[in-house]
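TASK: fixed-backbone design
INPUT:
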């Protein structure tokens, strides 16, 4: 699968055969961009597979496991989620999220707390029983990722962070605007 319409043009180079960078220069750059996009797509697929296997390991539906991973991650970052924020992260309606949270709570995987001075605000926390299991499952993943990242300088990591931030904001913009209603608005004939 290509990176979308226009990928063939990028592969040939924006200025035709040879591109602006001399013979094959535009081609090489376009191929690099395609390789990066393919790598990001493959990493995303692998991460989805990790979450699917975590779900199977816990005996959960994959959506429930994805929500649990989001709750655990947010806690680890020091920014626990509310049900509304979780709903955004897992792309579910508030009603579907409420049902999902009830299942996770009944399974003993999460607890709902009221930590804010505004007692109406609910905070989602992992239960003490699930954290060791999650650490056992994701421990090798975290260790290997940390090892892989050590091969890069702090400056390179900063550039990766900027690059991924740009891609994320671009995707957020697309989802909020052009794809707000499920897809782009068809152009008039």
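OUTPUT:
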């Amino acid at each position: 699968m290509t990176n979308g319409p226009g990928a063939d043009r990028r592969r040939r180079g924006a200025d035709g055969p040879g591109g602006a960078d001399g013979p094959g220069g535009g081609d090489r750059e376009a191929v690099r961009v395609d390789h990066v996009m393919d790598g990001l797509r493959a990493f995303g697929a692998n991460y989805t597979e990790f979450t699917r296997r975590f779900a199977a390991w816990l005996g959960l539906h994959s959506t429930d496991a994805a929500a649990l991973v989001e709750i655990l991650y947010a806690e680890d970052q020091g920014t626990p989620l509310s049900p509304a924020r979780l709903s955004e992260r897992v792309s579910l309606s508030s009603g579907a999220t409420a049902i999902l949270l009830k299942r996770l709570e009944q399974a003993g995987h999460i607890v709902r707390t009221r930590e804010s001075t505004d007692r109406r605000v609910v905070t989602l926390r992992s239960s003490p029983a699930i954290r060791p299991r999650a650490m056992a499952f994701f421990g090798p993943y975290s260790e290997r990722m940390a090892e892989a990242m050590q091969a890069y300088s702090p400056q390179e990591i900063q550039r990766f962070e900027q690059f991924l931030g740009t891609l994320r904001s671009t995707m957020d913009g697309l989802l909020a605007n052009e794809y707000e209603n499920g897809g782009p608005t068809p152009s008039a004939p």
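COMMENT: The beta strands are 110-113, 123-126.
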